[in-house]
């Protein structure tokens, strides 16, 4: 008599299930980590300083409702986004190589794409929490002084959220490029805080070319939307030496396109790099 065949009752979780599990536990690691509270404390410190400036310099910092949001949110929101992207995304993938966690996880039936997407979503949620707290303090001050929130701020908040999505895609690309967490964090921070701004300045001032290929140029819609009327796309300014220079302000459609392209291109390249790298 032939013995009956036993079918395995163990089923490999689907990609979606794997992604949800990785997102959940990575997010818990972020919230329990020291970096989350350091970034939260830094964000609250910026909020306190801006609150003090708004209180002691009313005519300069808050001349009107829109001017207040422009000075507060338009000048600092991008900085909070960059810090969040570096803190939560800088070593998200490179840490899998440096800490050897990927060496033990990948041989199991866990898709690398699930690891990548799960870690991205957890970094995005943690960063959104920080950004929401900063936005809450901003709105609290604005309502206290003016009693209302302009629609332009809501638009600027959405643009900032999109910038966060793009910035995380870029940081995950660098995190996949390196196997050392320190390198990926350091390079990402330098690129965002210095390289982009310097290249943007040099391209506009000396080459007189619109820097449409820079993510920081695309993020200009965050502050520009808080200016009424919206700045002209091309303006000219005369220097002290009488030289006329052309200045560029990113338009809303252009800014949205730049940020979206940065996210899709860098996130996909980062995933491909992670898929091809070997754990050893």
Summarize the structure in words.
- The chain has 280 residues and is mainly alpha-helical.
- The protein has one domain (15-276).
- 72% of the residues lie in helices and 4% in strands.
- It has 12 helices and 2 strands, in the order H-H-H-H-H-H-H-H-H-H-H-E-E-H.
- The chain has helices at 15-32, 34-56, 58-61, 65-89, 94-98, 101-105, 112-146, 151-177, 181-207, 215-218, 221-224, 252-276; strands at 234-238, 244-248.
- A two-stranded antiparallel sheet has the order 1-2.
- A hairpin with a 5-residue loop joins strand 1 (234-238) and strand 2.
- The chain starts with 14 loop residues before the first helix and ends with a helix.
- The model is unreliable at 1-9 (pLDDT under 50).
Question: What's the pLDDT, averaged over the residues?
Answer: 87
Q: How many strand elements? A: 2
Q: Tell me, what's the shape?
A: globular
- Provide the succession of SSEs: HHHHHHHHHHHEEH
Radius of gyration: 22 Å
Give the topology.
Elements: H1 15-32, H2 34-56, H3 58-61, H4 65-89, H5 94-98, H6 101-105, H7 112-146, H8 151-177, H9 181-207, H10 215-218, H11 221-224, E1 234-238, E2 244-248, H12 252-276
Antiparallel strand pairs: 1-2
């Amino acid at each position: 008599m032939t013995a009956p065949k036993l079918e395995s009752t163990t089923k490999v979780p689907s990609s979606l299930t794997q992604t949800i599990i990785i997102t959940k536990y990575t997010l818990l690691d972020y919230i329990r980590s020291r970096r989350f509270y350091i970034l939260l404390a830094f964000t609250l410190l910026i909020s306190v300083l801006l609150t003090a400036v708004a209180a002691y310099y009313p005519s300069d910092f808050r001349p009107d409702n829109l001017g207040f949001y422009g000075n507060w949110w338009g000048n600092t929101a991008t900085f909070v986004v960059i810090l969040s992207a570096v803190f939560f995304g800088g070593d998200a993938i490179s840490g899998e190589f440096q800490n050897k966690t990927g060496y033990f996880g990948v041989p199991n039936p866990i898709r690398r794409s699930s690891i990548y997407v799960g870690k991205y979503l957890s970094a995005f949620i943690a960063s959104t929490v920080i950004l929401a707290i900063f936005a809450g303090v901003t709105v609290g001050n604005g309502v206290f002084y003016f009693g209302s929130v302009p629609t332009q701020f809501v638009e600027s908040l959405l643009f900032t959220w999109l910038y966060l999505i793009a910035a995380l895609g870029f940081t995950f690309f660098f995190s996949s490029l390196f196997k050392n967490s320190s390198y990926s964090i350091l390079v990402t921070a330098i690129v965002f805080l210095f390289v982009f701004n310097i290249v943007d300045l040099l391209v506009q001032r000396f080459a007189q070319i619109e820097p449409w290929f820079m993510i920081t140029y695309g993020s200009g819609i965050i502050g520009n939307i808080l200016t009424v009327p919206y700045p002209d796309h091309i303006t000219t300014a005369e220097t002290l030496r009488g030289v006329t220079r052309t200045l560029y302000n990113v338009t809303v459609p252009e800014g949205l396109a730049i940020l979206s392209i940065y996210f899709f291109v860098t996130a996909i390249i980062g995933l491909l790099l992670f898929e091809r790298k070997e754990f050893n």
